[in-house]
Please model this.
Amino acid sequence: MIAASVWSEAVIAAQLFAVDPIGTGGVLVRSRAGPVRERWLAMLRSALAPSQMKHVPLHIADGRLLGGLDLNATLLAGKPVAEMGLLAEADGNVLVLAMAERLSSATTVHVTSAIDARETLVERDGLSLRMSARFGVIALDEGLEDEFAPAALCDRLGFHLDLNNISVRDADEIFIDAQEIVSARGRLQTLKADAQQVGALCVAAAALGIVSLRAPLLAIRVACTSAALAAHDAIEPDDIALAARLVLAPRALVFPQEHDQGQPDLQPEQPSDPTPGDDGAEKENPDTALEEIILAAVQAALPPDVLAALRGSSVRTRSRTSGKAGALQKSNRRGRPSGVLCGELRSGAKLNVIETLRAAAPWQPLRRREAIVSNEKGRPRILIRKDDFRITRFKQRTETTTIFVLDASGSAALHRLAEAKGAVELLLADCYIRRDQVALIAFRGVTAELLLPPTRSLARAKRSLAGLPGGGGTPLAAGLDAAFALADLIRRKGQTPTVIVLTDGRANIARDSAQGRPRAEEDAMSAARALRAAEISIVLVDTSPRPGPSGAQLASEMGARYLPLPHADATTLSKAVLASVS
Model:
């Protein structure tokens, strides 16, 4: 029943979007590629002409998206000729964004700016263009549970649909009557919401925790579209309720708590004089009644588990998480293309021929006039100078190396060494899955030892860990110094180091192998400050059975994430560390 209801709402959303693609903003369709999503798109195509849907590739170049210099026409004509971008070509039509959860920030900015301004402004390649770009958007979100389309784009789309839990048998094949859509567009121009309806939608949006003003504005437009599709002479409460279900319900962050029936009303009663013809019945405030209709519609649209979560918590949030990866590094040789720049052909730089010709094209008439008139057959048709060279820029994620610094001293061996070993083994397996390199440093006695240089061999790492004995003093400074030296070496190789320290924080061996807790703690703090100055990502896991201030102070000096886990087993330790470094 729930799947059939969701599909019914999706059908209505498609009909309303077909009536007013530009006014309603667009549709966010959260669904993996499959027959259900294709059936919904086919239903929408039955109401729109195929030429009205413009598809945007995921990694589209800015020049193709915004427009600019038409290179072929410019070279043939001998003067700058402009071409329209895909946003301008979609004027009056629908823009389809595939894999919206992976849109680059630049593409998101260009699309959302065009939605707001309803035009594109291009100033590049010696051209200044202002082109109309009024379009609706269909954003196809194929992300997993923790991957979402950009929030700036979602905020501008009126309808948010989730088709992931709908089976093919629940998705009835429906075709929209194109003539009915055309008739509804003609009636839409005469419909307008009154002040009471606008106020009720705004109050309901605020009660649902929706802070964006675009949500009630889109809801008002959807209500007008619903009235036009149903051939109503004015916007009715049913249209307002439908707009609340389709626009406000997917955006709800909280749900108003119901008043306790046993709690007395503290507001004083206002005396009222009886009027002639009044039968004693109280008149209900129409604004309050409409707000209650809206909230009831939202409540009916929310699944029971989501509604319970909204009532039980103050805010529903969606966080975008990503796997651990190295820092972005610019390069002129390899990686993903990230634009071009003016440069020289040296150090293995790659020439971008198209952008070089694009840079040279506007100057061809002037250069030909300046050139010496000659009838030689070898005279080049295109005059290119050194300043026209455009070099392709690349960016890539650097490889990550996780350095485990394990306290194998007597105090650690007595308390938590077995759990720490188990946690490190689980973390090593996770690093192996991500193809990260791992290194292992253990400190005990009077020194620190690099048991395992950076490697991807999981078997080798486990053997080094299994043969690690415990006992002796706690040369914490030596362990941190060894981690700093190895991290610096890794960074010099162009990789990104991450340090995970598992210790109880009770140093008693100084850098010069002398015993004494005060001096050992001073040396440990000095080594911690060196790590912090190097801006290395660090997680400190306090494995002491009774975490004290020493571990927290050490983490503060290192600028590390502090995790006091006195009673956690190996699995809990590994999960906590993974959550911190991801």
Remarks:
- The first helix runs from residue 2 to 19.
